[in-house]
Amino acid sequence: MLNTIEQIQFPQSKAFAFITKGDFFNQCSNDVLNNILEKEFLLNSFEYIIPTQTHSANNKIVHENSADQIFNDTDALITNISGKVLCIKTADCAPILLYNAKSSVIAAIHAGWKG
Fold first, then answer.
1. What is the mean pLDDT of the chain?
2. Rounded distance, CA 115 to CA 105, Å?
3. In Å, how far are 48, 51, 76 from 113, measured between CA atoms?
4. pLDDT digits (tens, 9 = 90+) for 44-57
């Protein structure tokens, strides 16, 4: 599978989401992925939220002070905080991105092949 990163900006918002595809991105650490995203898209002023995905139904709400949050065993991220970049890793799974323009809420969901 080709290793790619796809950037999506939701209309009428400052919300971004990134979807990585390929085994390279699934195997690299979140710190390495964070550095790649910052250099590739020149978004240094944003905070990248990269969960440890486990093919679960677990989700987390990303708060303003997300540096204190742990995103282990998490397959969906939700926030309405500006400056947060929700990231989902996929290989043979499907990424789902949701945006509510009325409330400025975004979600990035990893829909795994396991269910």
1. 75
2. 25
3. 25, 17, 15
4. 667 778 888 888 88
